[in-house]
Specification:
- 58% of the residues lie in helices and 8% in strands.
- By secondary structure, the protein is mainly alpha-helical.
- The chain has a two-stranded antiparallel ribbon with strand order 1-2.
- Helix 5 crosses helix 6.
- The chain is globular.
- The N and C termini lie far apart (67 Å).
């Protein structure tokens, strides 16, 4: 959410809000000014796009679909898997189509943000993920489970 240019806007906050702002900024290693700008931008986006919310994630602040655990880029990954068909993506997610369309509309307005998140996800292979999650193991099923001999005999006796 970086703006190419910026302007200074002065505002008054209640003392307690200022304290909370500074605490949150310090927690993230930001200035109060940077956090204020971020929160204003997120508030504007929330007011412009239905069902969009912003949350902290392991990779930073991201746009999410309200009432879900999915970031907008994750919904768009599902839309992409359904060849751009929002209705089919909604059926897959068992959501009403308007929830998927909220992600589509947000992506149309902020394509670089979402394309970057998709590209980062696409670049993540097992080895890269293993560096972030050292206990990660690749699941390889040994074989399909066969019925036990006793089960097979019981089935044959029927």
């Amino acid at each position: 959410m970086k703006a190419a240019r910026s302007v200074v806007v002065s505002m008054r906050l209640p003392v307690e809000s200022s304290r909370r702002l500074k605490r949150l900024a310090n927690r993230h290693g930001w200035t109060a000014s940077d956090l204020s700008a971020r929160l204003v931008e997120e508030g504007l986006r929330r007011s412009e796009f239905a069902l969009i919310d912003f949350r902290d994630s392991p990779v930073g602040r991201q746009a999410y679909i309200q009432g879900s655990s999915l970031a907008v880029w994750e919904v768009m990954m599902i839309v992409r898997a359904h060849k751009g068909n929002a209705k089919k993506a909604a059926e897959y997610l068992e959501w009403p189509e308007f929830r998927v369309l909220a992600a589509v509309h947000y992506t149309e307005a902020y394509p670089r943000e979402i394309k970057q998140a998709l590209a980062e996800n696409d670049a993540m292979d097992f080895d890269a993920l293993k560096k972030k999650l050292p206990n990660l193991e690749l699941y390889k099923p040994l074989h399909r489970h066969r019925k036990s001999t006793r089960d097979a005999q019981a089935t044959a006796a029927r």
